[in-house]
Amino acid sequence: MRAMKLAPNKSLTDYRPYWAECFGVAPFLPTTRAEMDALGWDSCDVIIVTGDAYVDHPSFGMAVIGRVLEAQGFRVGIIAQPNWQDTRDIERLGRPNLYFGVAAGNMDSMINRYTADKKIRQDDAYTPGNIGGKRPDRSVIVYSQLVKQAFSDVPIVIGSIEASLRRIAHFDYWSEKVRRSILLDSRADLLLYGNAERAIVEVTHRLAEGETIAQVRDVRGTAFITDAPLPGWRCVDESQLPEERDTQEIKLPDDGPEFVRLPSFEAVRDDKVLYAHASRILHRETNPGNAKALAQEHGDKIVWLNPPPVPLTTEELDWVFEQPYQRVPHPSYGDAHLPAYEMIRHSVNIMRGCFGGCTFCSITEHEGRIIQSRSEASILNEIGEIRDKSPAFTGVISDLGGPTANMWRLNCKDKKIEESCKRPSCVYPNICKNLDTDQTPLIELYRKARDVEGVKKILIASGLRYDLAVETPEYVKELVTEHVGGYLKIAPEHTEKGPLTKMMKPGIGTYDRFKAMFDKYSSEAGKKQYLIPYFIAGHPGTTDEDMLNLAKWLKDNGFRADQVQNFYPSPMATATAMYHSERNPLKRVGRGSERVNIVRKARQRRLHKAFLRYHDPDNWPMLREALRKMGRNDLIGNGKVHLVPRTQFSKPHLSKRKTFRTQHTGLPK
Q1: How far from 562 is each of 121, 610, 615, CA to CA, in Å?
Q2: Are 357 and 365 in contact, with CB atoms under 8 Å apart?
């Protein structure tokens, strides 16, 4: 049987624009029929439904997708935060000619709505007025079902981080069970995972040329439901644990592309060890240079995942960020407070991706570990646009970064090695010898950014990978001397080996090395500046003793964290697989493989969080009880060596030492 090959990789600028290009560029993508009429449109080609307010800014995913499709000649409408009680909002732009694109927004709707302790949040930074409750739980599913009710025959393409991280069977922290792929619950025709520009452009042009959505089966970065494996693909059966497999492997043809058969939804739902095994296989097949397709049975259907998208080139990424964004919220919101926008309106995203591989974080699963960098010229041009277009600009660029501030232009030294690599991290357990860690180009970018006319200060607010920073001391000096606004937040996450090995984070010694540089260069610059370290409580692999030792470290170093974060099991993260299965998928998984200590019960989660806030009188009774049970009465007393006092003091009698307000989620920005 002839193999179905993957579609060739085309540049985003190689497509012939669709005929509707003649309508030109919309000031804002229309959100109402009146706005469509003003543009002279009788219909939209694509309608995007999103859980976020519509902000026409390159940091908002749906604005990016909308402007990218507009640049291809398509008419794109936006339905932002529709009322999900009926279909009236879904119907307000009419029937799209090609498809509905459905997304939850920049954040997963469940993480947006609930705290790590499963309490409902009262706010939503992506909603005008910072009001919570304007999007439904599991927004992608709810919006897709509304579309089906209103327009049953119109194709649905789902995307965003919510769909991306639920593309196969996944553990759902909020219901404490394994849920099937979001494709089945949403009844969508196609799922795009990861950064989706390349896939969405290919899919949209092919639908515009007359193909049906069911014929689009060969695009990288897509997933869909099928009745059988695609024709001509060779099966690598990973549906059982290695020690339990039949020695006779079943293969389809003798040649052609390979796909991996994962354990079925029913198998991973009922067997936690198989769940951990499936998670390990999924994360192994994430490098676009060598990843196989994945297939997972759900009853009599198969969820098929094509290999990941090819990363955008610098030229393509520049093109994406240079579209005619207004860089402000839609005018219909008036002067409403929109925190997510206000936080990033004067920031510049310089790159995508992260090769850190932190197990609790979703960035690598979504954006991939190959760094995609913008050009220096494009970045500097955007700074100039902010200066010229934003009336609120005071000369301060709030951030020049991305998922990780100092990974710009850091890639594998050898393309062939990169394309064959299966490592989940380029920096753990140590920095790979094939990784280019030279950050001097970033120093030059910072200097040129500071020299842009009208710019007074460039701050670096994105997460900093300090184990990389120390590889280029000149970078640390430049950062500390010119780009720290008094405080710099970094994320050692823990001090103890047990949890750090499950996080894939460097030891605290690397933090100490960075801190020594930070203090030295701050002193040389005549500045009083402080490091604010982030820590996670309750991460898989953490014991009560680990948290006690972390609390002692905090006290010894004079840190009093005000806002702290418990581990939040986000869908598809490796640490979430640990949390659910109590196994370590960083190693080969079997019935007798390594067990992982899990902090699951609410009381123990509160205790671990209390250790991070050892200075809070509200936590002292719980900590005293725990210390006595642990045989550590020596830490109860009123001296400097003690962690908590022997007697309860009221808050007014507490020392008024500096309290650092820190918060770290370990989730995508």
Answers
A1: 18, 11, 9
A2: no
The full set of domains in the chain, from first to last, is 19-305 (3.40.50.2300)
Burial label for 474, CB within 10 Å (0-12, 13-18, 19+), is: exposed
Structure-token pair, residue 595 = 């067990």
pLDDT of residue 87: 98
Predicted pLDDT at 666: 35
Residues belonging to the chain: 669
* Cross-strand bridge partners of residue 235: 259
Gap between the terminal Cα atoms of the chain: 45
**Is the bond preceding residue 27 a cis peptide, omega within 30 degrees?**
no
The mean of the pLDDT values for the chain is 94
Partners of 49 in beta bridges: 79, 102
Q: List C-alpha distances in Å: 624 to 145, 281, 544, 621.
A: 51, 44, 13, 5
Closest alpha carbon to 310 in 654, 614, 49, 11: 11
- Coil, strand or helix at 653: helix
Residue type for position 6: L
Q: Is 222 helix (H, G, I), strand (E, B) or coil?
A: strand
Gap between the Cα atoms of 253 and 257, Å rounded: 9
CA distance 9 to 22: 27
Phi and psi at residue 109, in whole multiples of 5°? Answer: -65, -30
Containing 444, the helix (H) or strand (E) segment is helix 440-450
**Angle value at C-alpha 48, between 44 and 53, nearest 5 degrees:** 125
Looking at residue 225, its pLDDT comes to 98
- CB contact at 8 A, 427 and 356: yes
- d(C-alpha 276, C-alpha 588), whole Å: 9
Q: Which amino acid type is present at position 134? A: K
pLDDT of residue 253: 55
Helices then strands, each counted (H, E), the chain: 24, 23
Can you name the residues that pair with 120 across neighbouring β-strands? 114
CA 516 to chain centre: 30
pLDDT at 25: 98
pLDDT in tens, 163-201: 999 999 999 999 999 999 999 999 999 999 999 999 999
CB of 178 within 8 A of CB of 268?
A: yes
pLDDT digits (tens, 9 = 90+) for 226-259: 999 999 999 999 999 998 987 555 555 567 899 9
pLDDT < 70: residue spans in the chain: 1-4, 247-254, 649-669
